Amino acid sequence: FVIAAAVLEIFVYRYREKVPARFILLGLHIYALALSALLAFSLPLPLLAPSARSTLAALGAVTFVVSDMTLCHNLLLKRPSSCHFVSLGIYYMAQLLLALSAFPPP
I want to staple 4 with a disulfide (CB 3.0 to 4.6 A). Which of 36, 61, 62, 88 is the partner? Predict the structure, then answer.
């Protein structure tokens, strides 16, 4: 949890000057902690309960965090709308992986 929180807080710190209001920055810090908890609970799953479902859940969680980081990067740096398709594609991949982890293997 501490490593994930540190990495995400560094990411938020990098963009602190681009955030338009202080309360939004506070929300980013809280959201970074929530994403850290997501990673902290999902990454050990394949080691604690080895299965295809736990691996898919861990990959889905990591992909979800990457999609959020990409979205934050694109929005705060005012990238063109074509860059948002990359973030959306990563997000859909994360949702697919998380959904597949919910179903038992055939």
Answer: 36
